Amino acid sequence: MIAIKDLSFRYAGAEKNALSGINLEIPDGDFLGIIGSSGAGKSTLTYALNGVVPHHYAGDFYGSVLINGLDTVDAGTENLSRQVGSVFQDIDGQMVASVVEDEILFGLENFAVDHTEIEGRLTEALAAAGIPELRKRAISTLSGGQKQKAAIAAITALRPRIIVLDEPSGELDPRSSRKIFEYLKELNEQHGITIVVVEQKIMLLCEFAKRLAVMEGGVLVRHGAVGEVLQRPDILESAGVNIPRVTTLGERLREKGLYSGALPHDLPQAQLMMKDVLDAKEARRAAL
Ligand SMILES: Nc1ncnc2c1ncn2[C@@H]1O[C@H](COP(=O)(O)OP(=O)(O)O)[C@@H](O)[C@H]1O
Ligand SMILES: [Mg+2]
Fold first, then answer.
1. Which residue has its alpha carbon closest to ligand 1 atom 12?
2. How far is the CA of 187 from the centre of ligand 2 (A)?
3. Which one of 7, 44, 53 would you pick to mutate in the ligand 1 pocket, going by the greatest count of ligand atoms within 8 A of its CB?
4. Whole-angstrom Cα distance, residue 12 to residue 253?
5. Is residue 262 classed exposed, middle or buried when 0-12, 13-18 and 19+ CB atoms within 10 A define those classes?
6. Which helix (H) or strand (E) holds 174?
7. d(Cα 207, Cα 202) in Å, to the nearest integer?
8. Per-residue pLDDT tens over the stretch 128-138
9. pTM over 0.90
10. Local structure of residue 230 (DSSP, 8 states)
11. Residue-level pLDDT at 107
């Protein structure tokens, strides 16, 4: 479990806090989506989970972050990286090798994984990411989506219990974005890996994440199950977050007094809402 308690962080020399008074528990097996506008503190929050903050960025750090009981301030980054695998926003900056398999091998050797286990882990990670054919490919020749998968494969080969990703679909088209999320879902459901993902594409998050954390100006303004968080579109709007169009439609229908149920955040729910609206209309007509 990840337990963040009263966490505040201000980068050295910055005028204001990047994070202020964050309290958040992320249970094992969660699939948490972090949303918020640019500068809201999303990346800094991911840095607080993998120890980049405060170990690589100097600044004022208050409060605590415990990863399975391990305090990130006391733990070395090496130790933390065994618990938390990270896929950073700048994926090119993260990749160290020039060939896909070397990228994966590099991490395994770095973690001193027994050599009898290495080949198995390598093939397994490539297969799980759906890219076994890319094993010998030069990383520079990969598409954005392939590169993203190779980076995630390199992390999953290390078998962390938690994977943190910062805008993994940032440069991907809708289809590749979806594939990445399907892969994350599989890691989450079949391997029990906790997923924490910063993502701008709200519909994707609403479909795949279990819970959402909404950041605004360094503050965690809302956190809960996806359906719950979507019941307050006003909070999302003021945090500068796009709202799924089906949710906006629900709001409009409510304003007109045509609907009083829960706001939908995906298509199946929207269908149920429309059925509700049409049934009510039918009932009114019959009563005349
Ligand atoms: N290395 C840094 N040094 C100083 N300030 C930074 C640094 N990185 C980010 N910030 C500031 O911290 C705040 C949060 O940034 P960030 O976590 O990158 O937000 P997001 O990922 O939501 O866009 C912003 O005000 C940003 O300008
Ligand atoms: Mg960011």
1. 18
2. 23
3. 44
4. 48
5. middle
6. helix 174-191
7. 9
8. 888 999 999 99
9. yes
10. T
11. 92
